[in-house]
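hey so i finally got around to running both of the ones u sent me last week. sorry it took forever, my laptop kept dying halfway thru and i had to restart like 3 times lol. anyway pasting them below in the order u listed, first the sequence line then the structure token line for each. didnt double check formatting much so if smth looks off just lmk and ill redo it

first one:
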Amino acid sequence: MMKPLISPSLLSADFAHLGRDLEMLNASASDLMHIDVMDGVFVPNISLGFPVLKSIKKHSKKPLDVHLMIVQPEKFIRELQEIGVKYMTVHYEACVHLHRVVQQIREAGMSPGVAINPATPISMLKDILPEIDLALVMSVNPGFGGQAFIPHALQRVKELKELRLQTGSNALIEVDGGINLHTGAQMIEAGADILVAGSAIFSAPNPSQMIQEMKNL
């Protein structure tokens, strides 16, 4: 069985020592760097902007996995393309013309991802699943780091795995929210391919070791 991909969430890094944290991640067993972009409209919080993203890209040896929790994410395709992002994930709930947005992301040379909030039925992804490279199941309500895991998300990942089979999609299943060694193991068993973890990694006594332990789940 393939080892899970680990995408540490920079929202939990120490922004006063971001360079140090990036060096740690570069040297670690992590596969991606997960970056949440929030606009204070789609979610009740504001996070990193493009200047920070640019400097993260400059210092990162890992591909960037960018999760846009914003309205009208299509307005920023060019910025992310210029920065050199690998995965650009938009919210199902934030895009009126989801297929078009996914197409534009693909045309810009990035891998399109679609995220889905805890209250949105997984079945809503059925039509878009064959068109995307990544499907992100939120296991907390998006907007803040360090929230408690929503157990129902396990059932949702199983459902998504089933849907992926039905639609012949190759999309990777990513999970984000309240992921630690315990919930991470449950998620992998349910069918997740990528674990996004923030607090569990950055508040560990040895973050690099925690990443390795998650990788070995």
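and the second one:
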Amino acid sequence: MKCRYITIEREYGSGGTEIAKQLSEQTGIPCYGQEILQKVADAYDTTIEKIEKYEENVSNSFLYSIYMMSQAASGKSDMLAADGHIYVAEQEVIKRLAANTYAIFLGHCASEALKEKNGVINVFIHCSDEKAKRERIIKTYDIPESKVDVVQRKYDKKRANYYNVNTERQWEDFKQYDIVLDSGKLGIDGCVRILKAILEVQD
């Protein structure tokens, strides 16, 4: 199978964003993360910050998840809550960006949007080196050392809830991904090399 799309879910502080950006720079393949939010924000005349707040507050209730999925699948977007509208809009943006091109997608349940497409590799990036993860969070996001643990838990919970609610799959379940990379052992460069090699594989 020829790989055309890579979707990346990642732990906070794992270096997933840096890996995606370096992969994009080295291959010339566009990477979409915040760009997805910006397009949704423009369409809804709102801000990225407000969209991120919707994502953060999404319910992790099982019944809510079933409701959300049924409404989205039936096309009844007018009956969705605000965060449901955001999810549907993100999915539509991802599908448009993936039309007839190669692409790297960072977060936003991109694997769900592209589940009917061929050539999709779903990746999860984590970091087993807690010291390296903490140092990356402090340096990259300018987080005080005393608040690293709290911030890390907050963002991992946000990403997990949003993914779980909208896909009915568990974000932390490695079995659902095609590739799981440990940036603590492989390093940022090692993860980039592996994904670059996958994109270069031809039929």
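quick thing i noticed on the 2nd:
The first strand starts at residue 5 and ends at 10.
anyway thats it, ttyl
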